[in-house]
């Protein structure tokens, strides 16, 4: 089963790029890495997912290392509304998502 | 608007009582899920259903029950057998089973046992 490790908290200045790291050294070759975020007391929101190639969408970019043991989520121009808990998620053998405690990202004005 | 609706948003219950949380989706998704979240922690899977009239236990199914009689509905009952039911409950759906895509979440139901 894929397990992920994230720092418990991070700060970022408004307007700067927020780079959120994630270690997933036990991930296997066919397991995706997913990123979600959760604003306080709301349902989580999907951000992006990837397998081995870097991915980009309207919300963020996902950079996965060549050995697939770690990845970085990049929010290119962070705003105050990006303050949330960000989850880097792996999968178990039944392809169900395994959620850790995430990184609490605080965007400061 | 398309989405997932959970009700009630807040619920109080006395010890020993069963309570049912509602989850309805109009996204025409096949798969639906129930998660539990405790303060400062990630989500834990209670039950999931990949198709109507079928469901599977997740990691923490004890003390909970579900049904999937209709594609759009997946209610969760928290029974008196659940030892520590106070938590934030989240329902989600996805277009296909296997969670190989995006999960869509409701706004959650916060259950407090008095």
Provide key terms for this protein.
heterodimer; A: 109 residues; mainly beta; 6-stranded mixed sheet; 4-stranded antiparallel sheet; 10 strands; 0% helix; globular; B: 114 residues; 7-stranded mixed sheet; 11 strands
Overview of this structure, please?
The complex is a heterodimer of chains A (109) and B (114). Chain A has 109 residues and is an all-beta fold. Chain A is built from no helices and ten strands. Chain A has strands spanning 9-13, 18-23, 33-38, 45-50, 55-56, 61-64, 70-75, 84-91, 97-98, 103-108. In chain A, strands 1, 3, 4, 8, 9 and 10 form a six-stranded mixed beta sheet that branches. Chain A is globular, with a radius of gyration of 13 Å. The termini of chain A are far apart. Chain B is mainly β. In chain B, 0% of the residues lie in helices and 49% in strands. Chain B is built from no helices and eleven strands. Chain B has strands at 4-7, 10-13, 19-25, 31-37, 43-51, 54-57, 64-66, 76-78, 87-94, 104-105, 109-113. In chain B, the strands form two sheets. In chain B, strands 2, 4, 5, 6, 9, 10 and 11 form a seven-stranded mixed beta sheet that branches. Chain B has a four-stranded antiparallel beta sheet with strand order 1-3-8-7, with no helix packed on it. Chain B is globular and about 35 Å long. In chain B, 37% of the residues are buried. The model of chain B has no long low-confidence stretch (mean pLDDT 92). The A-B interface holds A 32, 36, 41-46, 49, 87, 91, 95-97, 99-102 and B 4, 35, 40-45, 48, 58, 88, 90, 92, 98-100, 102-108, 110.
